[in-house]
Amino acid sequence: MILDAIAEYDEMGRDAFLNTYRYRPARDYFLVHEGRRYDSKAIAGVAHRGVTGQPLLAGEFSGGRETVARQLIRLGFDVTAPGLAIGENTIENLLLKIGSLRTGTSRLTGRPRRHQPLTLLWAHGRAAQDEPRLEQWQQTSTDLSALISKFGNADDRPNPEFPILRLFHDGLWDLDESDVPPASTSIAQRWMRDHAPTSGLRPWVHTIVTQHADVRAQIVLRLLDKYFEGDDHEALLIAVGLVTVPDAEVALIDGSPSPQRRQSTTMRVIRDSALAQQIKNLHRHHCQICGRRLELPNGCYAEGAHIRPVGEPHNGPDEPGNLLCLCPNDHVLFDRGGLTLTDDLQIFDELAGQVRGSLRLAPQHRINIAHVAYHRQVARQS
Ligand SMILES: [Zn+2]
């Protein structure tokens, strides 16, 4: 019965199926079948035809979405719970989850509580330094308590139990325990202290943020922008190990940079990575020169390439008009002057002395011709 409803859904397409039976699109509970997602309540309602001869329309449905989900699970189907999408361990889904943390609000400041953002920043710092994914509770608890005390809202209690449990239930965190209680009660806190679980990012999350420094940077940036606006980002980044303190001696020999300058450099590096990620997403990781997309087990790979180099002496700007999405080979060819672009964005092979085709473009990504001309000039000088 369920399978018939799934087949009908596949045949009609999601919109038509939902319209026909007057269901609203599901937001939290999806039935997952053969790697595809289905609105669980609509499927259950339509499957009801097998019982009564009539599908249940949305309005005739008494069971809540959770009840439906439980019944489907009992029938042996996978159902995603809120914030926990089965079979969707993708970068996009990770960013979605990071963007929708349920943090609660500080009564004192009226701002979101910072337990979960701090826990995530801490874990990303560990990932950035190639530390083990899992950590003993004693260490986790000590580290997080200190971070919450120092960087939390003034009324954020330094209790690391709740963010860990919350992130666990939202599919981002791993605990070496079963029968994990919900995150809200004092029972939960006691349970955590008694069990002292080893914990850390879920394996798929850990894999993404260790293998993709740009995704990691994007997550860090989003957390900083959303939860720590107006705060001293550098102190926080240093505390979680996402930025190392510059070597004082080197700084002195080079004519020591001021703290302001250091902070802006730090933030620029992180912002750059996030911008490059946006450009890559616009092109869906297809190389703008050869069109190829490298597909890896954990997602696609491409590189953000500046047209006018950002370093001295070229000082190209960090803006979309100065970025390309390229595969690693074409990135090297472009950076070393083997390939250039004409003013009408044809790809010019400098060795063969001829045009190789047109640069692939995306509607929302306008390339600045001035940077293209600059790059061409530099390539031909060297
Ligand atoms: Zn390429």
UniProtKB/TrEMBL annotation:
Keywords: Endonuclease, Hydrolase, Nuclease. InterPro entries: DNA-SBD_ScoMcrA, HNH_nuc, ScoMcrA_N. Signal peptide: none annotated. Residues 287-340 form the HNH nuclease domain. Residues 92-242 form the ScoMcrA-like DNA sulfur-binding domain. It comes from the Bacteria. GO terms for molecular function: endonuclease activity. Residues 2-80 form the ScoMcrA-like N-terminal head domain. It holds the Pfam family HNH_2. The keyword Ribosomal protein does not apply. This is HNH endonuclease. The lineage of its organism: Bacteria, Bacillati, Actinomycetota, Actinomycetes, Streptosporangiales.
